[in-house]
Amino acid sequence: MNPLKKLLSQSAIYGLSSIVGRLLNYLLVPLYTAAFANPSDYGVVSELYAYVAFLVVLLTFGMETSFFRFIQLKDDKEEVFQNSFLTVIGINILFFLVSLFFNQNIANFLLYPNHNEYVVLLIAVVCIDAISSLPLAKLRAEEQAKKFVGIQLASIFVNIGLNLVLMLLIFDKSRPEQGVLYILLANLVSSLVKPLLLYKHFLHLRLKFNPELAKEMVVYALPLVFGGFAGIINETLDRALLKRLLFESGQTLEYAKAQVGIYSAVYKLAMLVSILLQAYRYAAEPFFFSQMKNQDKDKIYSKVMNYFVATVCLVFLVVTLNIDIFKHFIRNESYWVGLGVVPILLLANVFLGIYYNQSIWYKLSGQTKFGAYIAIGGATLTVVLNVLFIPVYGYWACAWTTLIVYAAQMIASYYLGQKFYPINYNLRKFFFYMGLSLLFFFLCYVMDIQTVWLKFIVHNLFVLAFVGLAWKLEKPLAKSK
Fold first, then answer.
1. Quick check: 481 pLDDT over 70?
2. Residue 203: is it exposed, middle or buried by C-beta count within 10 angstroms (0-12/13-18/19+)?
3. Nearest Cα to 282, choosing from 53, 9, 77, 15?
4. pLDDT higher than 80, residue 135
């Protein structure tokens, strides 16, 4: 099968769980913003889930990527899986026990001294998700995309169903802390669906550990852990810093939490690029590794980048030029005050997507340390810019910092990649797609059409023009026979 068609078909299948799942989770945004009349209450949920992202990266310990690489290098693929699986299980058991012992201290630090139950539930969720990640990675490596999708969707549907029941039928709006607890409980039950459906992998687990192989895998994965952790700092730390820095600068805790709630709600609109990116990454990582020995691999990587850049720029246009429609995902108008940062965050996520696509060079070459350097540099910049500007500009500082950091990482990755693992990307097409999407956005912004139906028609004519030009330039898959 043509490798590009194979990647496209795998992305489409993985995209089903990712896109459908994210869209269903999008339905939780109007649910939560309607249920939590005060943005500060939604800010609590948003902050807690920001920490989930940190912990999942830490607790999977880079073993997914390490697993994909080592099954290409080692003859005994089952031994590779067993070692990576046991490593993740051991890390999570240790983390769970330590965190459980210090749960009240953690709650005090997060400024939730009366709600240590949030911490306990959160720890359980992240540990279950981290442990489930390796069996799911094995399904991806074995190209069992349909089974992978079925498990992911089952978990998602349980989460959505429980949220609807608990938040619509049982939740008392006068007790917002009850709503936070229900959301975490729904997440816990839905997370348990994954190991239950993957039970065979747990039953077949053997306590047979190869220390030498484990050492090789950890050495390879360790820079990815630092890089991934630093990357999550770039993606989610702003929400935690926003609350604390505004509070410490003299604002009330209620106001600080409200700003987190507003920023997190509008950030969901920018995450539409991330939906595409997640679906793509599920298929792309094992695909890129499988092309390591292909003589035409560089040509394939370059062509994939062309398609990717055109697609994420299209998503940027669709959302920014139809923001008056997408904003209704947020049912409570008190959150709409933050819509101005959506174009900035969308463009930031476009840069992030391109960076992820480029990052395959250091994974393929085994020089994962460069991924760590780039991510740590980005994390440092994230912390510095947010600390300097959040007290003055609030969530606008968070948005611009995100854009600056992702652009810097993309540029750094490109130049390092060309030095150590050169891939001949078509920069002219990159600048064309990026420039055209920004030009169309600014033209629509300057026109400032007030009539709703006319605005919709004109804006989407620009979207169609972009699609037509990209299609004419690429003629998808037609040149890759």
1. no
2. exposed
3. 15
4. yes
The answer to whether residue 393 scores a pLDDT higher than 60 is: yes
Dihedral of alpha carbons 463, 425, 15, 320, sign: negative
pLDDT for res 480: 44
- The CA distance from 445 to 344, in Å, is 14
Interatomic CA distance for residues 219 and 123, integer angstroms = 26
**pLDDT at residue 11 greater than cutoff 70:** no
pTM: 0.73
Please state, as a whole number, how many other Cβ atoms lie within 10 Å of the Cβ of residue 226.
20
Q: How far apart are CA 345 and CA 370, in angstroms?
A: 25
> Which backbone phi and psi does 176 adopt, to 5 degrees?
-60, -30
Angstrom distance (rounded) from CA 31 to CA 54 = 25
Tokens 């993309």 identify what position? 410
User: Measured between alpha carbons, how far is residue 90 from residues 33, 207, 455 in Å?
Assistant: 38, 11, 56
Backbone φ and ψ of 349, nearest 5°: -70, -25
- What pLDDT, in 10s, does the model give residues 223-266? 777 777 777 787 788 888 898 899 888 888 888 888 988 998 88
Could you list the beta-strand ranges (E) of 223-284: none
Nearest alpha carbon to residue 47 among 251, 182, 274, 238: 238
> Residue 315 phi/psi, 5° resolution?
-60, -40
414-447 in b/e form (b: 16+ CB < 10 A) is: bebbeeebebebeeebbebbbebbbebbeebeee
